[in-house]
Specification:
2 helices; 14 strands; disordered C terminus; mainly beta; 4-stranded antiparallel sheet; disordered N terminus
C-alpha cells in the first residue's frame, strides 16, 4: 500500500538557479521509474525497494552532467561503506536482467553503483533496449555516453575516475522527458547466474547518495517529479519479516 504523493524536495539554496540537488536512498529501485510500485520479480514480496527519484528533462536539454555525487551505501544492513561508483558488496559482478521495458545492466567487478534512466512521456514497455555492458576499466572512464531511451546506464560519481578525473557528459536521447536515479539489485546481484537474474532484494540495502547535476547548464532549477512512499505500517512489516531471514546476498 502507498500513501499520497510526496514531492521530491530540493534542499538548500541553488547557485545561480542552474543546479539540481538529488538524494537517492540505497533502496531506490530503478525498475520502478515512472511506476506507482517497484517490481521485484527476482526477489520476495516485501523487498521491492522504493520508487526512484526523478526530474523532468527540459525540452531543450541535450546533455546532463554530474558536478558532485557523494555518500555511502551497503547491501547487507551494516555500516555503509560503498561509494557512488560501487564496490564488491557481495560477489564480484552485476548481471541484472531487463524488466518491464527498462534495460538491466552488466558491470564487471562493481555492485550497488548509481544508475540513471531516461524515460519518454509514457512509461516503457517491452521489449527493453539492450543491456549496456561495462567490462573493462575503460568502459567506466569515457568522457561521454549516449544512452538510449529506457536504457539504464552507469553514473557512479559522474567522473572519469573514482573520486577524480573530468566530469562525464551523458547525452539526452531523443524523446526523453524524465530522468530517474536509482540502483540495480537482485539475489547476489545475478553474478552466479549468467546471463543474470531479474531485479529484486532491495529491502536490506542501507545508506544514500547525494548529488548535484544540471542539464546543459540551463537557467532554471530542474523540476523534481512526485514520488510515493510506503506507509509506515508497511515498513514495520518489512523489518519484522527481514529479521526472520538470513541475508542471501
Amino acid at each position: 500500500m502507498k500513501t499520497g504523493f510526496v514531492c521530491f524536495a530540493m534542499a538548500g539554496a541553488l547557485s545561480a538557479g542552474t543546479t539540481g540537488l538529488f538524494t537517492v536512498d540505497a533502496r531506490s529501485n530503478i525498475f520502478g521509474a515512472g511506476r506507482l510500485t517497484s517490481p521485484e520479480p527476482g526477489g520476495i514480496s516485501y523487498e521491492p525497494g522504493l520508487p526512484p527519484p526523478g526530474f523532468l528533462v527540459p525540452s531543450t536539454a541535450t546533455m546532463a552532467t554530474f558536478e558532485s555525487v557523494t555518500g555511502l551505501t551497503n547491501c547487507v544492513r551494516i555500516v555503509p561503506s560503498i561509494g557512488p561508483d560501487g564496490g564488491q558488496c557481495s560477489g564480484i559482478d552485476t548481471q541484472i536482467n531487463s524488466y518491464r521495458g527498462i534495460s538491466g545492466i552488466v558491470a564487471r567487478e562493481r555492485q550497488l553503483f548509481l544508475v540513471g534512466v531516461f524515460l519518454g512521456a509514457s512509461n516503457p514497455t517491452d521489449p527493453a533496449p539492450n543491456r549496456i555492458s561495462y567490462v573493462t576499466p575503460a568502459d567506466y572512464s569515457q568522457t561521454s555516453y549516449s544512452p538510449e531511451l529506457n536504457q539504464s546506464f552507469f553514473i557512479g560519481d559522474g567522473l572519469t575516475g573514482t573520486g577524480s578525473g573530468t566530469i562525464q557528459t551523458f547525452f539526452v536521447p531523443a524523446g526523453a522527458r524524465r530522468l530517474y536515479f536509482g540502483f540495480e539489485d537482485t539475489f547476489y546481484f545475478g553474478h552466479y547466474w549468467p546471463p543474470g537474474l531479474d531485479p529484486g532484494y532491495y529491502g536490506d540495502n542501507v545508506g544514500a547518495l547525494n548529488g548535484t547535476f544540471n542539464f546543459d547548464g540551463l537557467d532554471g532549477t530542474p523540476t523534481p517529479l512526485p514520488i510515493e512512499t510506503p506507509e509506515t505500517s508497511s515498513l514495520v512489516l518489512v523489518a519484522a519479516g527481514l529479521a526472520c531471514l538470513l541475508r542471501r546476498k
